[in-house]
Design brief:
Keywords: Acetylation, Chromosome, DNA-binding, Nucleus. InterPro entries: H1/H5, Histone_H1/H5_H15, WH-like_DNA-bd_sf, WH_DNA-bd_sf. Histones H1 are necessary for the condensation of nucleosome chains into higher-order structures. The structure is a single chain. The chain has five helices and three strands; from the N terminus they run H-H-E-H-H-E-E-H. By secondary structure, it is mostly helical. It has a domain of 68 residues: Arc Repressor Mutant, subunit A. A three-stranded antiparallel β-sheet has the order 1-3-2. Helix 2 crosses helix 4. The longest helix is centred in the last third of the chain and has 17 residues. It is elongated, with a radius of gyration of 25 Å.
């Protein structure tokens, strides 16, 4: 059998088109939106996950489409220590903003200055 070069119609590279790049969304991340929603609430026991989702929906965020993103954002914020989980486990329950993080972050800076002197 002899090899014949492919015809121009068969050439894959010639027919390949670049994929249209999706427009990147600008604006605050889900985590930032969640922190703002928790900070805005005056609830003593924290904000429930359901109330958080309602607040995000009211703010124009499509929660139904991005359920997994909201869940992971909540879990990450709790893991970082930005939010404290007052009730429940995982991404369910109630959440408060962690006030201890701010004071702890400021104190070591002062201590370091004393060590340098």
């Amino acid at each position: 059998s002899t090899y014949t070069s492919p015809t121009p119609q068969c050439n894959v590279r010639q027919g390949a088109k670049k994929k249209a790049s999706k427009p990147t969304k600008t604006g605050p991340s889900v985590g930032e939106l969640i922190v703002k929603a928790v900070a805005a609430s005056k609830e003593r026991g924290g904000v429930s996950a359901a109330a958080l989702k309602k607040a995000l929906t009211a703010g124009g965020y499509d929660v139904d489409k991005n359920k997994a993103r909201v869940k992971t954002a909540i879990k990450n914020l709790v893991a970082k220590g930005t939010l404290v989980q007052t009730k429940g486990t995982g991404a369910s329950g109630s959440f408060k903003i962690n006030k201890k993080v701010d004071t702890q972050a400021k104190k070591p800076a002062k201590n370091q200055i004393f060590f340098l002197l």
